[in-house]
Amino acid sequence: MIRTLLVDDEPIVRKGLLHILPWDRHGMSVVADLDGGEKALDLLGREPIDLLVTDLTMPGMSGFELIQEAQARFPEVSIAILTCHQEFQYVQEALRIGALDYIVKTEMDDDKLDRIFGRIASRIEEKRVRRQSPAAKSATADKEGALFVAMQSDCSVGELYAVPWVSERMPNPVSDAEQAWFAELPALDKRDDGADGPVPTNKWFGRWAVVILHHLTMKDRLRELLPVYVRRHIFYLVDRKEGSVVWHDSLRDIMLFEEKAQPPDWEEEWDSFRWIADDRAWQELQERIRMQRPEPSALCGAIYRTVRCWRGIRRFSEIERYVTQARTLRMWTDWQLWLARLRRDLKRALEGPEANREHSLRILQSIQGVQRRLAEGITQEEAAASIHFSRGYYSDCFKRTIGVTFNDFMRELRIDRARMWLTCTDVPVHEISRRCGFADEPYFRKLFREETGLAAKEYRAMPEAAEEYGLRCIGNADIRLL
């Protein structure tokens, strides 16, 4: 059992957490619940504890101080934190100084809690494996593997084979895309770099990510899970800011995640655009994405299509720079930083002297609906009705917010979407015309030539045009947006 100590200054909260959280299901036994950091440190000095679960904001000794003291005096103790939505700004700092994970006290969804507690239990088990004797490690020698994932398009397997300990393992490609290679490892021993030989950090940083995967007991599922892991999960694991080449993860966690995946409701939060102006909604959006781990192709494609629509916002002069930058982003942490800057600049652009923030957000919501139903040829009246505005007020508000009329904006949007279809697909021109909301194909052809200087077929023949519509995320081949 994982001997657990719960610390929170509110007795009612402690009582609720003792009964609600899935301690037993994940092999945890709460040996004590205390109301302060000083009492917790005293008990840690007297009792063997595997896991400390502590609130961050407490009178007297804060959760941060408790974490730092516990790490200094009892390094073998693992730590998880309790938090509320409004405390998300503290979570990153707590994780940075050594907490394993965090539990949101206001979110008691069973599936979400199972995933969190499963992660915590897995990481505690990893620490135990590292402390085992060589003989004990030998008994679990088949439980680790090294996954080598290319971060750049010009990476080659020859770079891996140039490292002796890697070539000895003879890594195999995970999939036909050859974005990743996998090799089994003996049990982890005392490695400073997370592998069983030196990783050429200077050469590999920014080019390769090495993931040490634990808990490979289900070998029959490796062939099925590894491509899924590379395509989906590594995008959320790797953080370029850490300056590292080696990361650790648990295949058991991935199995649990894939078996109990949450409904992907992150897009609902994204489409609301509340996250632009509301800090709490911004944190909620990031949390939903972190917990649900949508397919990178779906996530990044949806974000990019939306932001590309905003090129028509004349008051947002920096938008072209953001559209260009998006094509260089590789990991979710890259996208988060990019979105944080985008959010700041867009909020400033929408807060002019005549602007109404709520109405500006509703205009963006209407644009989102229109671009998703482009083939239907949505009219201005229908766009206005979708956000409960009159046609006249919508027209006024649209021009104030965006800087151009609805009709001019829609013409640019339809032509841009046609360019995307032409460069990314083999769909016939007449069908592209229909999908972009043009009822009359000859008119579409005429307008396309006026806007681009080329006939549709001539534009399609330009290979360099396709580069504008491709994204590339770690673990994925080029992501096409249609």
UniProtKB/TrEMBL annotation:
GO terms for biological process: phosphorelay signal transduction system. InterPro entries: CheY-like_superfamily (IPR011006), Homeodomain-like_sf (IPR009057), HTH_AraC (IPR018060), HTH_AraC-typ_CS (IPR018062), Sig_transdc_resp-reg_receiver (IPR001789). Keywords: DNA-binding, Phosphoprotein, Transcription, Transcription regulation. Residues 3-120 form the Response regulatory domain. Residues 364-462 form the HTH araC/xylS-type domain. GO terms for molecular function: DNA-binding transcription factor activity; sequence-specific DNA binding. This is Response regulator. It comes from Cohnella herbarum.
